[in-house]
Amino acid sequence: MKYSTPLQRVTLIKRYKRFLGDVLLEDGREMTVHTPNTGSMLGCAEPGSHVWIRDSGSETRKYRHSWELSELASGTLIGVNTGLANALVVEAIRNGVVPALSGYSGLRTEVAYGQERSRIDILLEGSGRPPCYVEVKNVTARRGDQAIFPDAVTARGTKHLRELMQVVADGGRGVIFFCVQREDVEAFRPAYEIDPLYAETLKQAATAGVEVMAWRANLTPEAVVLQQPLPALLEW
Q1: For 232, which DSSP code?
Q2: Cβ 178 vs Cβ 215: under 8 Å
Q3: Out of 3.40.50.720, 2.40.50.580, 1.20.1260.10, 3.40.50.150, which CATH number does the structure's domain 8-79 have?
Q4: Which of 70, 128, 134 is nearest to 103 (CA)?
Q5: DSSP state, 101?
Q6: Which residues have C-beta within 8 Å of that of residue 102, sequence separation ≥ 6?
């Protein structure tokens, strides 16, 4: 997925109020930008680090620019825009990049479902096949060479796992898809040290037949592309 406008490299002053960040431009001016990430952004929001922002071009938005990438001292880029994860997975499915999710004739997004009144990120449908419900999670945190999720306690994420287990119990196909927007990892695991309930529920979901998929993206300031499956480690 290519960015529609070039990203601008700036210096992070601080992130605050979850959706805001103050940055320092190259010319010395300060600016407040939108932060499209509801998580803690563990390891991705260090004051003084470089980040990449996108100009939406909108004259009506209160904060015209959005924070898209964080850059580590090593040069590693991390995609912090959680909204982009769904689009990356949709693009990968439509391009046949994810073989396990290919062969469906219909793809819908944000479809209401479940006993707990949820919305599934992606619903795949095809003649003669059970519907496939795909819940996408953006992954930015890391421990060692492993990507971890979540980066903060997530009751909502645990609810989504329960919904997927019910989908499988009802004869459908349930998939939890971890979109890892960083390249410096070799595997994925649940962050049991941050949210033990989520980790245990993920293990239960896998045992109940929910498919756990993790894919790593390639990131540059020009484009982000989902391209590499990662092993999901569910035992600890």
Answers
A1: B
A2: yes
A3: 2.40.50.580
A4: 128
A5: G
A6: 93, 96
Encode pLDDT of 75-134 as tens digits: 999 999 999 999 999 999 999 999 999 999 999 999 999 999 999 999 999 999 999 999
Residues 6+ apart with CB under 8 A from 188: 139, 146, 147, 148, 149, 178, 180, 214, 230, 231, 232, 233
Q: What is the pLDDT of residue 18?
A: 87
Q: Which CATH architecture has domain 82-230?
A: 3-Layer(aba) Sandwich (3.40)
Cα→Cα distances 107→90, 104, 122, 134, 174, Å? 8, 7, 7, 10, 15
Q: Is the pLDDT of residue 184 over 90?
A: yes
The predicted model scores a pTM of 0.95
pLDDT digits (tens, 9 = 90+) for 34-68: 999 988 999 999 999 999 999 999 889 999 999 99
* H or E element, residue 121: strand 118-125
